[in-house]
Amino acid sequence: MPRVRLLFLLALTLALAVSAPLIVSPSRADGGPQHRVSTDFYGVSGGNVNDRSRRYCCSGTLGALVRGANGANYILSNNHVLARSNQAAVGEDVSQPGMIDVNCQVAELVADLAPYPDLNTSNVDAAVATLRGAAMRTDGQILDIGIPSSTIRNASVGLAVTKSGRTTGHTTGTVGSVDTDVSVQYTRECGGGKRFVIAYQNQVVINSSTFSAGGDSGSLIVTNDSCRQPVALLFAGSSTTTIGNPIGEVMQRVSASAGTQMSFTGSACGVSSAQNFSVAAENSMMPQLSSLSVEKARNAKKAHKDVLMVLPSVIGVGIGSSETNASEAVLVVYIDKGNSVRPSIPKTLDGVKVRQVLTDAFTAR
Question: Which pTM value belongs to this model?
Answer without folding.
Answer: 0.91
